[in-house]
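Reviewer 2 asked us to include a model.

Predict the structure of this chain.
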Amino acid sequence: MNDIPKSKTKYGSFIAIGIVMTIFVTVFSLIMSLVAASRNNLVSRDLYYETSNIYGGPINQSAPMLEMVDEKSDLYLMNKLSPVRVKKYVDNTSLVSTDGNVTINADFVKKGLAYQPTYKVQFSAEYVLRNSLDETGFVAFDFPFPSGTDSNEISNAKLVVDGKEVENSKTLLSASDYYSTEVPGLHWEGEIGANASKTVQVTYDTVGISTFDYTGIENSKGAQDFNFEMTISGTRGYDVIGGLSVDEREFGEDYVKLSWNKTNLFSKPNISVSVAERLNPSTQVSRVYFTMAPIYVVFMIVLVFLALKFNTGFKPFDMFLVSVLYIVFFPFFHYLSSFTIDPTMEIFSSFKTVSYYSMPLYLAFGLAWAIVGILIVYLIGRVTRLKFALGVGLPALVLFMGFFPLVVTIPEYSILLVLFGVIALLAIVVQTRSMKKA
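Predicted model (structure tokens):
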């Protein structure tokens, strides 16, 4: 019986290790990708509710209401008003113009490996009230703060009428057809001249999460001019999820400006815009795990094939070590991206100043790749030749353990970047052909 050729035995060892490691990598990557995805869904939901306890949830701002002057107020008593007269004044006073300006500063709060779509808001609106009677009218102007503001923060709130700020305008607005319960807000009572207008301006700052809604009121006497401008800073991602159509869009380096310019609007003005969520690092890590097995197969085939082709002395055990280092890279990157410094931890109690720090995703990827990649290049260089390690091993590592896992974290351009990666792989093949001739 003839002996089995050593070359077949050598190839068989590589194939056997490749099959075993491929199965292990596949099972490991599926488990870790599912773990990362499930934790992302569960943790993100829990953290959303925790964050909403501080930021108060989505902002829903309602338009102001014109009400009858309170019969117990000084204005009512001094002008000897009556229920019939105050009702007449309200029925003949209407909101003829709204000029709103909202600045939303995206302030993504990071909790673990999840970003919450939180933001800060600067709200300003100018309302023009019109009295259509031939006599002076007396009305009350009620502006409610966003719904749920009993747990929100409201600051710098001002109510200005014809250029003069109204003192002590904060109050609890009584329940009405529009408010089922008492709500905090701003209140003004005053007169509007015969066939005249009154300009009321409202400003405040607050915080919110996810969406911003503005619910207007319809002018029962006719049309109104509705002009509303919203600037979203810190992100260019947004979604108009309801209400009036946008008339103008302006995109800047890190902002988007939306404008609604509706002249003689007969319908009810509503606006609903969501601030686009930032891609969570946990989602990106899950995608990297999902590509772990197919990249490993191609990586090992290329590395082993070229090592044997150039007779470099690369052994099956060396393949096993490279495989183990390849596998370690992914959880190493995962947990590096989860790394944070919490100044409240006891381990930092002896330090005078320790700042909170959260490891950025791509910095974690770069550190993990540099540490594991150097070990792999060093291993290949020691068991083969330095020229092979730098000419073949390093480009393969950059491509298979660096480029391909990285592009899946950018879903908008992943396919295009993968094509660039395939071109780079062909460039490596061309390089090996030139090395062979040399």
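The chain has a mean pLDDT of 83. The CA atoms of residues 56 and 151 lie 6 Å apart. We have added this to the supplementary material.
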